[in-house]
């Protein structure tokens, strides 16, 4: 099917740096990369939602899911970053911070301390984006982790600003993306209200 009449493709050419670790040899433009990642992620979603996982709340599972989502596109899929970015914790703290995050989530699930399942899933999502464990793909990974946790808790997945429509509005609609990023930033400042409103909108 042609997407000629949909939104214009992002014809930005990828730099050599952008292409570091890229597996498919034919990819030149941003829109081609986006399409390859989206196809990979769709397969991963089927894989992830279609089976029982012994324990989602482990470093091993987080890496495995990242690899499922990006392993057809990026050589570094499933491996924690080894350099600093202008976002995220210092890279040498990633394993410790990931462990703390999963311990906290497990504790919240065990205790009846007033946090709803939606709140726990949204906190998990936020902590993953905050730690930023991987060189890229953290936002989409965090959103899928939250949805998987919700599935395990027998709750419907979040809608992530998509409303009644299909697809990932955060990627396709700049206004939705802006609302999402503002909500994540508010959560960085410990205000979770915008994020809680966003995830089921
Ligand atoms: N100040 C910020 N600006 C943009 N994103 C931020 C910011 N703070 C946290 N984030 C989070 O980081 C994510 C982007 O990180 P990364 O590029 O690794 O993820 P991605 O999966 O490639 O992106 P996307 O979320 O667009 O699908 C955002 O989705 C958001 O969740
Ligand atoms: Mg990215």
How would you characterize this protein structure?
- With 201 residues, the chain is mainly alpha-helical.
- The protein has a domain at 30-158: Fic-like fold, CATH 1.10.3290.10.
- It has eight helices and no strands.
- The protein has helices at residues 30-49, 59-70, 94-110, 117-131, 138-152, 169-172, 174-188, 193-199.
- The CATH topology label of the domain at 30-158 is Fic-like fold
**What small molecules accompany the polymer chains?**
adenosine-5'-triphosphate, magnesium ion
**CATH architecture descriptor name of the domain at 30-158:** Orthogonal Bundle
- Number of strand elements: 0
Output the helix-strand order: HHHHHHHH
Helical content band: 40-55%
Q: Which superfamily, in CATH terms, is the homologous superfamily of the domain at 30-158?
A: Fido-like domain
Structural class: mainly alpha
Shape: globular
How much strand?
A: under 5%
Primary descriptors:
single chain; 201 residues; mainly alpha; Fic-like fold; 52% helix; 0% strand; binds adenosine-5'-triphosphate; binds magnesium ion
Summarize this structure briefly.
This protein is mainly α and 201 residues long. The protein has eight helices and no strands.
Task: List the topology elements.
Blueprint: H1 30-49, H2 59-70, H3 94-110, H4 117-131, H5 138-152, H6 169-172, H7 174-188, H8 193-199
Helix pairs in contact: 1-2, 3-4, 4-5, 7-8
Bound molecules: adenosine-5'-triphosphate and magnesium ion.
Adenosine-5'-triphosphate binds at residues 87, 129, 136-140, 170-171, 181, 184-185.
